[in-house]
Amino acid sequence: MPQFKNFTFLSANGKTKINVRRFDPDAAPRGIVQIAHGVAEHSARYDEFMTFLAANGFVALANDHLGHGKSVNDESEKGWFADKGGWDLVVGDVKKLHDMTKSEYPDVPYILFGHSMGSFVARTYLIRYPNDLNAAVICGTGQQSAALVGAGKAAAKAVAFCKGSKHRSKMLNGLAFGAYNKEFEPRRTDCDWLCRDAEIVDRYIADPDCGFTATAGLFRDMMGGIAFIGKRENIEKMNKSLPVFLISGDKDPVGENGKGPARVAELWKRAGMRDVCLKLYPDCRHELINELNKAEVMNDILHFIENKACLGKAEA
């Protein structure tokens, strides 16, 4: 039976307590899987996945990013990273948690899983800390054109400058998420794009720590992060032998129905990455580990980890 514990550590910003949920296996761990969650959600939504990983012998843990879940000092900071340098702080917190956990088990494989905004955080991590990991799983990611990303960053930067980084802009929120639900008919809710499981969608809508309008500062910082991970000179800093598993639904609007993850895979391969695997799941939407076929997805992730990280079968 996996053992659960909840703890905090001091953020890279030096003032916020970052909340962490962790599940440990009964026996000595085979490896560690650290999870980076998406925007406008929180780490507790990954409890089922983490329980599954722990039941299969892995330490599984996830922190609430700055401005999310229980890593919030007050309501004004919900959906906000910082006045400046917010993306670096979020990635810095992932690094701090990695270092703390790795120090406990220095000899076991370490895997980073990133979903949605967390996929952009994870991809930033792969560039900045290329030798920290044994494998990575990138879920629900995308990569729009540099021009489109630049325009989004400029819009968010302008709003943050004029109205403050904590301002919540319906316009920016609409630009970021407004089109995601359009292709799903008939639409039952505004969040049908998340997954096909109605219970999961309803639970997300009812959760006060999910689906909120993020701040202009967060959108500015996130678009800056997306611009960073799309540049060839940055991608080339990644560990070329690192096994990476890109997974997405072929009906995920964040990834343009599979085009975005395929674009990322191609960018990585052109930069010399030698062990990139892409899998698109038919009819699945954005949140694969909450989809109707989540058991298949979780087992695919486990198989990848076991074969690529634990057995060291990265391509030569």
Fold-level CATH name of the domain at 3-143 and 232-310: Rossmann fold
Distance between the termini: 37 Å
The mean pLDDT is 95
Order of helices and strands: EEEHEHEHEHHHHHEHEH
Largest sheet: 8 strands, mixed
Number of helices: 10
What's the CATH architecture name of the domain at 3-143 and 232-310? Answer: 3-Layer(aba) Sandwich
- Give the full name of the CATH homologous superfamily of the domain at 3-143 and 232-310: Alpha/Beta hydrolase fold, catalytic domain
Q: What assembly state would you assign to the polypeptide chains in this entry?
A: single chain
Helix content: 25-40%
Strand order of the largest sheet: 1-2-4-3-5-6-7-8
Keywords, please?
10 helices; 8 strands; 316 residues; alpha/beta
Describe the protein's architecture and organization.
The protein has ten helices and eight strands. By secondary structure, it is of the alpha/beta class. Helix 3 (117-128) links the parallel strand 5 (110-115) and strand 6. Helix 2 (86-104) crosses helix 3 (117-128) and helix 3 (117-128) packs across helix 7 (216-229). The radius of gyration is 18 Å and the shape is globular. The relative contact order is 0.14.
Describe what is shown at a glance.
With 316 residues, the protein is of the alpha/beta class. The chain has ten helices and eight strands. It has a domain at 3-143 and 232-310: Rossmann fold.
List the helices and strands and how they pair.
Layout: E1 3-10, E2 17-24, E3 31-36, H1 47-55, E4 58-63, H2 86-104, E5 110-115, H3 117-128, E6 135-139, H4 146-163, H5 170-177, H6 198-206, H7 216-229, H8 232-235, E7 244-249, H9 259-270, E8 276-281, H10 294-310
Parallel strand pairs: 3-4, 3-5, 5-6, 6-7, 7-8
Antiparallel strand pairs: 1-2, 2-4
